[in-house]
Amino acid sequence: MKDSLSPFVKWAGGKGQLLDRLIARMPSEYNHYFEPFIGGGAMLLTLNPEQAMINDVNAQLVNAYRQLKQDAHAVVDAISTYEAIPCTKALYIDMRNKYNEKIEAGILDTECAALMIWINKHCFNGLYRVNSKGFFNVPYNNNVNGKSCDRDNLLGIGNYLKQNDVRILQGDFEAACEGVTTGDFVYFDSPYVPISDTANFTDYTKDGFSYEDHVRLSELFKELDKRGAYVMLSNHDVPLVHQLYEGFSIES
């Protein structure tokens, strides 16, 4: 591992507090690194693998990674212009509306990435939640003068992504794993199985992550294991997970 970086957005299920335990259980040597549900990227940014494939279904999140790789300075400069103005509730609503206009128009650019990062620091509890139309709908957190980004960290992430062979995909997790071969390491940090029957599946994307998706994920996990890849997955310690991954080493 090289100097570790840290996630530029707060993301549900982030692995910051579990990294030591996860890293202790991963292979000491592997070929390519794959992370089909990149989220905040805590594992990636700690490991800094020279060859990696990262993916997420959330187009705005993927755009942020792509824009940082392309020109992190431009993203940081855009965020800096937003930070020059105290964040009132009215300003937050205006910025959120501007961000949703980008989503509606399908515009994935530097400004969209900067808006996403800024909003993540000014929305309630750093949640990323969208409605059925795919629009971001988390309320303001009343943080008037809160810092929206760590400039050095964002530039460091951009530098890492640019100087290494890091492919950034946007789409389904199965498609993201098509190139996995013997000796590769795949870490799955998918949306979790709900703890109770009344808990909701995730709203990270307007389509959510269904029971059928969890079954499909477990089948892919088994297929990659047969290919000779190293596979590791995080999830809730619930009966369905034990059922889906029966025969594999499971630790609470």
Structure characterization notes:
The chain is an alpha/beta fold and 252 residues long. The chain contains nine helices and five strands, in the order αβαβααααβαβαβα. It has helices at residues 19-25, 42-47, 59-83, 89-105, 110-122, 151-163, 173-176, 211-226, 239-244; strands at residues 33-35, 51-56, 165-170, 185-188, 230-233. It has a five-stranded parallel sheet, with helices on both faces. Helix 2 links the parallel strand 1 and strand 2 (51-56). Helix 3 (59-83) runs antiparallel to helix 6 (151-163). The radius of gyration is 18 Å and the shape is globular. The model has no long low-confidence stretch (mean pLDDT 91).
Strand and helix layout:
Elements: H1 19-25, E1 33-35, H2 42-47, E2 51-56, H3 59-83, H4 89-105, H5 110-122, H6 151-163, E3 165-170, H7 173-176, E4 185-188, H8 211-226, E5 230-233, H9 239-244
Parallel strand pairs: 1-2, 1-4, 2-3, 4-5
Helix pairs in contact: 3-5, 3-6, 4-5
Q: What are the defining features of this structure?
A:
252 residues, alpha/beta, five-stranded parallel beta sheet, 9 helices, globular
Helix content: 40-55%
Question: What's the overall average pLDDT, rounded?
Answer: 91
Strand order of the largest sheet: 3-2-1-4-5
Low-confidence sequence ranges: none
The end-to-end distance, rounded to whole angstroms, is 25 Å
DSSP helical segment count: 9
Q: Tell me the fraction of residues in β-strands, as a range.
A: 5-15%
